[in-house]
Structures
1.
Amino acid sequence: MKQNGSSELIIKKSRFITSMARTTTVDEANAFIQKISKQYRDATHNTFAYTIGLNDNQVKESDNGEPSGTAGVPELKALQLMKLKNVTVVVTRYFGGIKLGAGGLIRAYSNSVTNAVENIGVIKRVLQQELIFRVPYNRFDEVDHYLKTNNIFIANTEYGVDVKIHIFLDSNEQEQTKNDLTNLLAGQVNFTNGEKRYNEIPVEDNNYHEQ
């Protein structure tokens, strides 16, 4: 998930407020649940689910008074289907007077989570290699255009006698990018590998199941 955030749906007059947070420990998850439950203490229900660890090492869900299996479980399944990790979700319901039934509740809570994720956005953590190279000032705009066109983020730029550029690439992007830049600069470029690190890359197509 890109950042903490919230969204709201109205389903048959019931108000569903979904609050989400990035959490890496059970303590952080519990603190967020308590915070939201206190914020909406007058709500009919404050249901929740969380998944901690890259392999869903610790998971928990709660229906908070809704019929068993109609709130927390579909919320957790929604997180897992979208392959989200280290995330806590609290779905607050203000009852609107129309009963939804078990199936309606399952859809409402699941859709509330999916809607919130689509509004907030998703990132994936990818191990990338830093690539460092220098270009003359009069060639920087061309290089910058190439990098932007190919969605390659410039991590750092140093200005001296020439322009020293730092970029991060997935392992399968390195050779093609080097070849492209070498051709663009007519061979007048040398590359140095820097550090390897995990970077957060936005998922733009909302096809979370494939991430």
2.
Amino acid sequence: MRTGRPDGRKRRWRQHKIDRREELVDGTLAAVRARGSGAGMDEIAAEIGVSKTVLYRYFSDKNDLVRATMQRFIETTLMPRVYGAISLDADEYQLTRSALAEYVGTVDEDPEVYRFIMGNGSNEQSSLAEFEKLFAEVVAAVITARAGEKGIETDGALLWSYVLVGGIQLATHWWTTEKSISREEVIDYLTMMAWSAIEGMARANGSRETFNNQPHVLPTPALDAKNAVAAREKTDAAGTEDAATES
């Protein structure tokens, strides 16, 4: 007779497959770090200590293995570092720079894994898209919370976040293949871009109408620097006069 209760053996077997897949994915990460991003199924299997047949028992093909590896890397390595940076008790500029530094640093410190998951998964982009969606939603939540505290409109927060995340991901990917500038330069330039965008949004109060009604003229850096120096000298002089008057 059928009791309607799930078969305990089937449940245990499903859990075994899940656990075994995770073990093999962790083994793949170690294999790629040891043998490089170009490692094939034979090399990965040899490094793990199993036959290639075992890999194909748990993964339909290499794309399936790459997809699972990408998810594991994002969940256990990349996102925890980014989450930690975003969760810092710091001002908005420091949060921006810290998050960028962690993202770029994670990719730079694990280049073979990054190239493996980005270079081999061209036929399967769903995991990358899911990561970008998750990352954008996290950034949007931070923008909404921080801007909301200051009374800034946040209707465009999710769109802004997708622009920031997509641009950062693409720029970092380019850098990993070119390496024409240093890691610190990458962080500086990305921070310059991201912070300028965030600061501009805040200056317009997050409002399309306010932004459209503002003058949009590129500043002249040399003139601005000269004015900044003059203003600082004026402030210093005023402080000196005040001190002299008090004495």
3.
Amino acid sequence: MEEPHTGINGVSRGKILNLTDAEASGNRKGILDISHTDSIDVMKDFSRLILPAHHDVQASDVDLKRLGALLYLTREQQPQNFEDLLMLEGVGPRTMQSLALVSEVIHGAPSRFADPARFSFAHGGKDGHPFPVPTKTYDESISILRKGIEKSKLGNSDKLNTLNKLHQIVADTEKDFTPDFDIQQVIEEERQNSWCFGGKTVFGDAEPPKKPKPIQLSLF
């Protein structure tokens, strides 16, 4: 069940999930625990999930007031003022958008998770819905979280407190916010810009948008 093994036999398809690795012992235990779980209990949990019949993210799937307030703050606010307030100098609007949604996962009340599709606007989806995963933004988000955790261990929790502060600012903005935007335009903009942020899906890398073909006019 555990390494060392003499080798792995099969067609090479790149990196593999090696559950015989010593560091995968926790994964093996988790799989074993699930296999011993009463299937009736598992199905009770799944029965609470009511999913739409479509896979793409639509306006009906998200709380537009919450998403709109977040997009307004991270895209429309003066960057310098926002940075000074949150002590996140040099963090661009796209990463701020991701961090705001991450901060809500960490600090948000359970009532704020009624529209889980909204959180896909943090780092996209590997299938390209609502847009390709912006790997550069993804990595930057992880880096900021990691630095915050490391500093908090040394007694400086400013970075982690910043995430809570970011969540509170977004929540306060929602109170007086009236959504007036087309969610499909937001998604299309994310897709058009995805290649700039290292966008990837299971189908490959995101490509720069192609220029529209010129219209050929004819007299006949």
4.
Amino acid sequence: MSLKNKKVLLIDDEEDILRLLKTVLIKEGIDHVYTSTTAADGFSQVQEKQPDLVLLDIMLPDGEGYDVCRQIRNISNMPILFLSAKTEEIDKILGFAIGGDDYITKPFSPKEVAYRVKAQLRRADFMQEVHNKKEVVKAGPFELNEQRAELKKDGEIIELKPKEFQLMSFLMKHVNQIMSKESLCERVWGEEYIGFDNTIMVHIRRLREKIEAEPSRPNYLITVKGLGYKLVIKDE
């Protein structure tokens, strides 16, 4: 994956952080790094620059990064990485629930941030390649169109957030196979498993709420205790 043509937007009200991250990302080979210090200007630059990825602080002088994330999700599936001093679990869960792809707490290692940025860009490129294949995957009552990022159950469209779609896509390609949390984390999040247990559980729960008649008693997306998860299709 070439990083030279990738565009990254940093939205944070701390100038020192912006300078530090911009320097590190440029050293890592990302030539186009833009910065913003407010929510309003940040979203304006998203529309103008059309970046490939956004690093977004939650606490901004004119609003919350959560609101900017919601605005971006209305127009784009680009990776969004939250960067915040908020370390409570509920803050992280909210960040993922509204469409964030990663959550990095302050203080942070600039090298780690660069690693996470590159991992998200790699995964975004992979998903684009998959979409370009115009592949339709069918399993039981489900039909997944990767070009359209569309899932149907019994012919009815099910609205999924980007990460939910990627998770369902991976599971549908491994029907009736136990997928470990480690493999899900690597293939869907592009990260090592450490620290992602709760993130995976949140997304599994939300996916069940959309594809199961009774999410608390799933027929399709089941938990295999101690091993992982499995998408069960009995007629396969």
